[in-house]
Design a protein that fits this description.
Length: 139
Amino acid sequence: MYGLRTESEFDAAHFLTDYHGKCENLHGHRWRVVAYLEVDELQREGTCKDMVVDFGEFKGALRALTERLDHHFLVEEGSLSPDTLACLDREGFTLFTVPFRVTAENLARWFFDCLAELGLPVSQVDVYETPANCAIYRR
Ligand SMILES: Nc1nc2c(c(=O)[nH]1)N=C([C@H](O)[C@H](O)COP(=O)(O)OP(=O)(O)OP(=O)(O)O)CN2
Ligand SMILES: [Zn+2]
């Protein structure tokens, strides 16, 4: 088995719906995302001969995803009223709406699915909400 690992970070705001504690309030994190690729065999020919994939392609793909979330307000679909959404929009805040509760676990799965859709042989994604707390998704 051969593996690659790369990481990227993004800053964003969120709150946890139906949470009883301080995380129900709007707050921010610098999330750190670590992604892993895994293959049994290296590529046999071409520019990527003897590589899993080019590090440039891998890190570029992860960075493009973290860039989509960077400095956004991550909002679970249906968790804010249309009035609130309209106010935020009027104020020029940029939202990134997702169909799941914005937990580190779900974000790890979101990154995993996006990387897999790009055709990368992703095996695991870790999302750190703080330096000490990390959620892991692997399939
Ligand atoms: N399993 C999970 N638990 C929690 C998640 C999560 O995504 N998965 N998220 C949160 C909140 O987003 C929260 O911001 C994290 O809070 P907390 O652990 O309290 O982190 P802090 O470092 O800010 O806490 P200290 O008070 O500084 O110890 C909650 N749980
Ligand atoms: Zn949080």
